Amino acid sequence: MSIRAITEAVEAAFLAKQQIKILDRRIQYLESQHDLQNHDGWMTLEQASQQLGKTVAAIRQKIKHKKQPMPEGIVWKQHSKFAPIYVNLRAFREHM
Predict the structure, then answer these.
(1) Residue 35: what pLDDT?
(2) What's the confidence (pLDDT) of residue 38?
(3) Residue pLDDT, tens place only, 28-81
(4) Which long-range contacts (CB under 8 A, 24 or more apart) does 34-39 make?
(5) What does the DSSP 8-state code read for residue 69?
(6) Which of 6, 43, 47, 69 maximizes the CB count within 10 A of its CB?
(7) Is 42 buried (19+), middle (13-18) or exposed (0-12) by CB count in 10 A?
(8) Would you give the end-to-end CA distance of the chain in angstroms?
(9) How far is CA 44 from CA 14, 21, 27, 87, in A?
(10) What are phi and psi of 24, to 5 degrees?
(11) What residues does 72 pair with on adjacent strands?
């Protein structure tokens, strides 16, 4: 085998490795998007609004309704008054 053939093979292997890295990153991105779309557990209020197609204000109003609030700790949780609100999407759907 000549040096030229070896050099070409090494270059081809390097390019193939680079292409594999690019494809691997694309797969990771698509998997993360798939996970977000199919996620049914705890998520931020903003993420829940995207999943449900409702505004943040509408969800907040629904979970903290004065007469019929959704159960805290089951449907939603908030560590302190000004902390982010988290929504359990599965429980939210069940309590709709």
Answers:
(1) 59
(2) 56
(3) 777 666 655 556 789 999 999 999 999 999 999 999 999 999 999 999 999 999
(4) 39/89
(5) P
(6) 43
(7) middle
(8) 71
(9) 42, 31, 25, 6
(10) -60, -45
(11) 76
pTM: 0.59
Enumerate residues 6+ apart whose C-beta is below 8 A from 36.
Answer: 47
Whose tokens are 């609100």? That residue is 85
Q: Indicate the burial class of 47 (C-beta count within 10 angstroms; 0-12, 13-18, 19 or more).
A: middle
| 3-state SS, residue 72 | strand
